[in-house]
Structure formats: C-alpha cells, structure tokens
Amino acid sequence: MGEYKKAVDKSFNKNSERRPSNRGPAGRKSSDKGLAGRKAAGEKAGGWKTGDGRFTGRKTSDGKNNVKKQSVNGGGCSSAKKCGGCQYQSIPYEKQLRMKQKMVEELLRPFGKVEKIIGMKDPKYYRNKVHHVFARDQKGQIIAGNYQVNSHRVVPVSDCLIEDKKSQEIIETIRQLAKSFKIRIYDEDTDYGLLRHVMVRRGFTSGEIMVILVLRSPILPSKNNFVKALREKHPEITTIVINVNDKRTNMVLGSRDILLYGPGFIKDTLCGCTFRISPQSFYQVNPVQTEVLYRKAVEYAELNGKETVIDAYCGIGTIGMIAAKHAGKVLGIELNGDAVRDACVNARENQMRNIQFEQGDAGDYMQEMAMMGESADVVFMDPPRSGSTEIFMESVVKMGPKKVVYVSCNPETLARDLAYFAKHGYAVKKMQPVDMFPATEHVETVCLMSRKEK
Q: Which of 22, 96, 239, 272 is least surrounded by CB atoms within 10 angstroms?
C-alpha cells in the first residue's frame, strides 16, 4: 500500500486532474459543479483546467488518422500565446499526433503494442462546452476570457479555434449586455460584484444550447429583460440557468441552480443514445471523438448479449447505455446524485430496461458486491486524471471479471494502474490512443485487459 500511495502522490502532483476522483461531489468525473479535481492541478501551475484537457490558467465514425495537414491555429488565434490553454496550437496537427503517439508508446510499451492514434478530420471548434471568466481590464472595460497561465490576469478570448463558434458568439453578446444592463462584474480581490463566469453548452447533434450565468448572488437585476434581450440576439438558446457561487473559491460552479428560461437542461445524441445534460453534468467536450472512443471501448469488450457489465464512474450513463445495447444487463455506479438522476432519466427515454444505476463510491460499492459473492463479466472504468484508486482496483480483482476495459485520460497514471492489474492476474491485450483534445498535450487511451487463466 505504501509504494502504491507514493506512486499516486507522485503522479497526482505531476499531472493536473481532468476530473475529480470518482467524480467527487461535482458529478461524474469532472462535473463543473466544482471542478474540485482540477483545482489541484491548477494550483500546481498557478492555474486550473477545465477538466477536459484544456488549461485555462489560474483558478480557474471516423477513419484512423484521416486528418488534414494543418496547424490547429493557422495563425488565427490572437490570444494563443497569452492564454496558454492550447499548448500545441502552433504545431501542425500531424506532428501533434506523432508527439502524442510517442508519449503513449514510451509509457505503455512494457505492456504491449500501442495502436496508431486516431486523430480528427478537422481538429477545430470541437469543444461543445465553453467557459469564460468575466473581469475588467485596466481601462475598466468588461472582458471575457481565460486566466493567463501562472497569473491572476484574464486574457480576453473571442476567436478561440477549439471552442464552439456559436458559444463564443453568445458569450460576446452577454459581455455587451452586461455593459448595457450595468451588471457588476465580480472582482476576486475584493470579493465584490455579481457576474463571475459564463458557461455555454451546446448539443452538436440536437443543436440545443444551455447558458449558465455564474453569479455571486441569486438575484440578477432586470432578469426578465436580460433573458429577453439575450434570446432576441440568439433565439437558438433553449435554456438559461443562474448558478450561484458565493464562495471565495477556485471552483467555477456552486451547488445551487436557478432556472430562468427553458427546461434547465439540454439533450444530445451520442452513439445512437439520447442524453440529458444538466448544468452540473459531466459530458465529454469533443462529441466527434467521444463516439470514436466509446465505440472502441465497447468493441474491445466483445459483448454477445449475455454478459453482466459494470460501468464504474458512470456519470449520466454514457458508456453503460451504449454497452447495454449489446449486453445482458448493466449496472452503473456513480457517486453524484444529480448524475444518477440524469442517468435514470436517460435510460427511460432510451427505453433501456436492462440497465440500472446505483449511487455510491464505485470502489466501496464493488467491495461490498465482492464480499457478497457477486460477479461481473466485464467492467468498464473511466477514472479521473489522477487514475484509479487501490481500493477500486482491489475490488475489481476480487470480483474477477473476465475483461476490464480501462478508458484513461492520462497515460502516466494508466501505466501505473496497468502495473497493478498485471501483478494481480490481468494481462493487457489491446491499447488504442484517441486524440480527444487537439491543440493540447492531452490524450485518451482505451485499454483492454483480460484475466489470466490460472
């Protein structure tokens, strides 16, 4: 246990966290209710990540490699050097893929062959969730953007080449409306002001758009007129929510949501399933590559319609519901109650009767299952950037599934965890990197492990 703890601590300190372990209080993986897991990473470098591979500064189906010969930035992003969110933006995309392939191979070579990374056809404007910090510049003008790396300074961003264009347009409109409505902009030094952040989430398939106004207070002056003005400019907006964050904190979202317009959620389709996405829900930011990633994970499981499957860290049920089409029954385990409620709604709306969801810590829940003699044929695990925990992996080993499909957002912690499984009776069979976050240094890898026959 001591050696494992050292490895965990070393890896955790070296790598920023994309999402809190077992989703924490914020929801699946990195629900933005807190971005608690990202906080640890950000504090290391004087900043934090949005949890999906992109560094925002302080505090804060597709053939393989069928990609264009292009740089992601193409000289177009005026904020690239100051923002620091896209570490690879000036590098031609094919070279980015080679760099990521080399990194994954160097870390995972001891476990077997690493397949060629799957890149995007068009690695631009892929982010379906856009978050900007609001502040005032030295001239007192309202700006919206990201915290510059290692600083408190907000860098205005209006032409990001990886963020959804429509979402950026909506945030710019809100910036202009904030001035005309005389909305006080939050100042982190004085802890005074109202508007802290704006987050926009768009369903790339459904076209539905959610706007989340993060305020220090639940009261937005002239809220009805503000909503009317915003929707006049952008009638495509389907719901608007106030999120109240009244604490001096690095976290983006608070715990309270107040509905201003619409249903309070959006829906989107992924791998043929429809998912309801609430303000706090985790949902992968690159839907194009998410389909590639999840289809590969289910392909690796080689389900025949009879298996019992566990989807650990299941969030709103994405992987589990996709797998349920090919399995006998699926159990999703998730710590966050809001995510579990969304998952149950998603299962009903997709008319899936062979999947159920339970709220609880995945490791603890599976330990109890193992003690009661319960088993599973396949376990899907998709842990945070800090990797899995020894308690969880121990519970998997005790249950003894024939196959474990590990979806990783950090090849370093993946290598550490694969070493644990290798010592406890599992062999790595396949490893496939997928570029989920072009222009950044991050890469996802899906890995198949099989239990060794005794």
A: 272
CB atoms inside a 10 Å sphere around CB 256: 12
The C-alpha atoms of residue 398 and residue 425 are separated, in whole angstroms, by 11
Active-site residue identified among 77, 314, 409, 447: 409
First to last CA, the chain: 25
Q: What's the rounded Cα separation, in Å, for the pair 45 and 245?
A: 24
DSSP string, 146-193: EEPTTSSPEEE-S--SSB-HHHHHHHHHHHHHHHHTTPPBPBTTTTB-
What type of residue sits at position 93? Y
Note the pLDDT tens digit of each residue in 12-38.
Answer: 333 333 333 333 333 334 333 333 333
Within 49-146, residue ranges assigned H as helices are 80-83, 93-108
d(CA 133, CA 269) in angstroms, rounded, equals 28
Q: What is the pLDDT of residue 64?
A: 42
Report the C-alpha gap between 413 and 29 in whole angstroms: 15
What span, in angstroms and rounded, lies between the C-alpha atoms of 88 and 441? Answer: 7
Does 115 score more than 80 pLDDT? yes
Which one is predicted more confidently, 228 or 39?
228
- Cα–Cα distances (Å) from 213 to 36, 175, 234, 239, 244, in that order, read 19, 11, 15, 11, 8
What is the SS3 assignment for 366?
helix
Active site residue 273: no
Helices (H), 21-120: 36-44, 80-83, 93-108
Per-residue pLDDT reduced to its tens digit, 215-274 = 999 999 999 999 999 999 999 999 999 999 999 988 999 999 999 999 999 999 999 999
- 3-state class of 318 per DSSP? helix
At 321-374, the pLDDT tens digits run 999 999 999 999 998 888 899 999 999 999 999 999 999 999 899 999 988 989
**Beta strand pairing status for 154-156 and 142-147?**
antiparallel
319: nearest Cα among 209, 420, 407:
407
Give dist(CA 143, CA 132) in Å, integer: 9
Give residue 78's pLDDT: 74
Taking CA atoms, 15 is separated from 48, 51, 137, 411, in Å, by 11, 12, 31, 10
Task: Give me the torsion for CA of 34, 39, 41, 45, rounded to 10°.
Answer: 140
Average confidence (pLDDT) over 182-210 = 96
Rounded Cα distance, 324 and 119, in Å: 27
Q: Give the residue among 403, 355, 352, 409 at the shortest CA–CA distance from 380.
A: 403
| Cα–Cα separations (whole angstroms), residue 171 to 131, 262, 348 | 9, 18, 34
